[in-house]
Specification:
Radius of gyration: 12 Å
Number of domains: 1
Bound molecules: iron/sulfur cluster
Largest sheet: 2 strands, antiparallel
Shape: globular
Distance between the termini: 20 Å
Number of helices: 1
Strand content: 5-15%
């Protein structure tokens, strides 16, 4: 598995095609696929499409935060 990276706030950085066992479909995703992009814990759908990377976002699930994982 790839090395897990975190942003400055300790949130896990996720690729749009990644997912974990905490996946929960977001109501806003028309066709929920089991990917971070469609998960309610990611920021993919709330981030602007311009600026930043299209392929990466952060996971807001508290159990995936750096402090929680490395405890
Ligand atoms: S956004 Fe977070 S909780 Fe959702 S599938 Fe991705 S890693 Fe898991």
């Amino acid at each position: 598995m790839e090395e897990i990276r975190y942003d400055a706030a300790g949130l896990m950085i996720v690729r749009e095609d990644y997912y974990c066992e905490h996946y929960e479909p977001d109501d806003g995703a028309l066709v929920p696929m089991k990917e971070c992009w469609c998960c309610k814990w990611s920021n993919f759908r709330t981030e602007g499409k311009d600026g930043g990377s299209d392929s990466y976002s952060v996971c807001n699930y508290i159990g995936n935060m750096k402090q929680a994982v490395n405890r």
